[in-house]
Amino acid sequence: MTNTTRLLATTSLACSGLLAAMPAPAFAQEAGTANDGTDIVVTATRREARTIDIPYNISAVGGDRIDANQTRDQAELLRSIPGVAVVDRGRRNAGVINTVTIRGVNVDSAALGDYAVSGVSPVSTYVNDTPLFAAYLLKDLDRVEVLRGPQGTLYGSGALGGTVRYILKKPVLGRFEGRVTGGISSVKGSDGIGYEADVVLNVPLGETFAIRAVGSRQHYPGLTDYVNVYKLGADGIPTAPAGVLAPDAEYRSVKDADFVHVWYGRIAALWQPSDAVDLTLTYNHQEDNVGGRRQITRGLDGYGKPYEGYQNGSVQLEPSTRNVDSIALEANVDLGFATLTSSSSWYDHEGDSVSENTGFYAKAGFLAFYYNYPRPMASALRSYRDKSFVQELRLVSKGGGPLDYVIGAYYQDQKLFSSQDSYLRGFKRWWDAATGLPDAVASDQDFFYRRHETFKDRALFGELTWHATDTIDLTGGVRYFWNKAHNDTSIDIPIFPSLSQPTDATFRTSEDKALFKGNLSWKFADRGLLYATVSQGYRRGGSNAVPTIGRYAEDPSWQQYKSDTLVNYEVGVKGGFGGLTYNLDAFYIDWKDIQLNTATPVWGFYVVQNGGKAKSQGIEAQIDGRSGGFHYALGYTYVDAKLTRDFFSPDPSHVLIGRNGDRLPGSAHHILTGSADYSFDLGGDTSLTLRGDGFYQSSTRNAISTSPKFNVRLPGFSIWNASATLRKGPYALTLFAKNLFNAAGVTGRFTEAYMGTSPAQGYYGNASKDLITLPRTFGLSADVRF
């Protein structure tokens, strides 16, 4: 541990140990519970408040509703929230890249996802107070909060376009309770039946201590058929039935190759020695084992045969695995005038995958470089790891006076690793037989890449609210960052000794930046608020560490990238009457020095570059109502997000990447959401609840690019779900249907021009693919609570 880390960890433990002597806080209402059935209480402002009283656009979904809707994953959950777009890749590599887009703030291609990128996402994600994108299973959640617009003053440098917070349920003192859930499901295209099982236990141990444990197992049998996979020998090389020098190959079909096996566990311990003090220690663990992509190939294979249904044209299987662990300690103490919170967390998130690269080799002309070697099978083995220690201290005033404040300090020590080892399987065996020159080729490995990065982020932040009158508030916020980054990168092409020249590069950067926020709100009724906000967003810069000398030299302009910033202007009104709440706002975002995750043009280093300017403007509208047993919600978002300046590469070639006026990728002009449910009281402690919901988004673009290889239009789509729950006392049975009309829901594409077939070069597969949503699914779930 560094001295700074030791100091912060010691401070955290000291704050925790200080707590026992403090007086008691009195909370009127737990976060996540409802005030009148429609106003969820959240902690987005670092203090408890109804969503209707927060002076910017925020949505919250309670954990009970997530369970009741049988929500499968983050993509489905976020589609239910107005104005949020997400690239749906399925479970494979689900934790590599955060693909959430809010208010159109995104320039990265929807086809990213197989490897870890350097630039942080424009949308930050938190698990409780830990800034972590983990794609954990949605189990035993108190609620999910979605904060639109930059949240940098309270949530750090990655909160450029917004923040998503996953709030876990805490242990409950003095009450033994639990829940057991099991379910089965059948997905169109699959020959198997999926199942999942969950157990939740809350165990009090005395009056001041409680433990809450969650365990979950998911198994889905897969639906995508890999129909032209090479048969491999014991050495992992494609078999050669007519001899090594002959062009013949053997293929097999793998049914339902994209199976998913997930284990998830969580244990949390709460100690509350007095009403003034509480400490919560939480440990999360998840393991993913996925057999392949839930992505389908359209078009023809190398023999002219069309792919049909849920078929993928890869010539090899593409599994992925992932493990993520996180530990967090949160301590709260009531100081009478304010609440002091210490949040300490550590996480370790790692994974690996195999990707089919043969189509890329074919379309890029690389196979010709390898003498059109028969039975080409280019495998990219990629891995990533993200380890971090995070410490935050906050002091939040209790209210009641003319001024309220939040002040705090933040520290993060993050270590990132990514690698790629590429192989042209069987090439050396063929080369040796064809040429008799074994020393000319060292192995099948034709690319070696390693990247080690460290980021240290220190910040001071605060917000001050002046209650000018009983109904008018003015809030100002600031966050000051100072960051350090260090990047060590290695690259080599070891396949040919004559080309091999292991090259290392290193680069260090540092920067500091202040962010500001201003807000004016008028509470014109107990449930009515008019507000205006100006807020800045900031995303940290860093270094790419490309070599500038030697065989693999790149232009020095690629060495580093700087932070990008935006200014968000927003006016809105929110309120409620009776059982109805509403929210309407308009926003305008000015974004400059945009960061784009890409690769260098010569040797393919993964880098981030700056360039161009963009704007995003639009409106967001939501209503949520309840009348008796009937509940409904509607949402509409219009977003116009586009470049406002040409986007060029930073090197002297000054290649045009995107044009002024180009639409930002993944951003739909129109998004509509709707849901409704009705509960019937059948008597005898029995009820029946019927639910339905729908989502529509208009067309999007796949990438920022001047090339049709990448920048293609993705058509709009809609998804409709329905369920019925019969509950009697603690027992419930739910029948559900997902994607009733079986929409493909394409949110990303690898085009044929980029990764298609090429029989002239010996490649008879097809690596192009569409990223589709989960096809029509029927399921049955049962649970019992005690």
Give a short summary of the structure.
The protein is mainly beta and 786 residues long.
Describe the fold and architecture.
The protein has 786 residues and is mostly beta strands. It has one domain (3-785): Maltoporin, Chain A (Beta Barrel). 7% of the residues lie in helices and 52% in strands. The strands form nine sheets. The protein has a 22-stranded antiparallel beta barrel. The longest helix has 16 residues, at 3-18. The radius of gyration is 27 Å and the shape is globular.
Structural class: mainly beta
Number of helices: 8
Largest sheet: 22 strands, antiparallel, barrel
Tell me the distance between the termini: 44 Å
Binned strand content: over 45%
Instruction: Specify the CATH architecture.
Output: Beta Barrel
The whole-angstrom Rg is 27 Å
Domain TonB-dependent receptor-like beta-barrel: 275-740
Organism: Sphingopyxis terrae subsp. ummariensis
Membrane topology: Multi-pass membrane protein
Pfam family, one: Plug
What labels would you give this structure?
single chain; 786 residues; mainly beta; Maltoporin, Chain A; 22-stranded antiparallel beta barrel; four-stranded mixed β-sheet; 42 strands; 52% strand; globular; TonB-dep_rcpt-like; iron transport; transmembrane beta strand; receptor
Which SSEs are present, and which pair or pack?
Blueprint: H1 3-18, E1 41-42, E2 49-50, E3 58-62, H2 63-68, H3 74-79, E4 84-86, E5 100-102, E6 123-127, E7 141-148, H4 152-155, E8 162-168, E9 177-187, E10 194-204, E11 209-220, E12 225-230, E13 251-254, E14 260-274, E15 277-290, E16 295-296, E17 311-312, E18 320-334, E19 338-356, H5 358-364, H6 366-369, E20 378-397, E21 403-424, H7 427-435, E22 445-467, E23 472-492, E24 503-525, E25 528-539, E26 542-543, E27 560-561, E28 564-577, E29 580-599, E30 606-627, E31 630-643, E32 647-648, E33 656-658, E34 670-683, E35 686-697, E36 700-701, E37 713-714, E38 717-728, E39 731-738, E40 748-750, H8 752-755, E41 769-771, E42 777-785
Parallel strand pairs: 6-8, 12-17
Antiparallel strand pairs: 1-2, 3-7, 4-5, 7-8, 9-10, 9-42, 10-11, 11-14, 12-13, 14-15, 15-18, 16-41, 18-19, 19-20, 20-21, 21-22, 22-23, 23-24, 24-25, 25-28, 26-27, 28-29, 29-30, 30-31, 31-34, 32-33, 34-35, 35-38, 36-37, 38-39, 39-42, 40-41
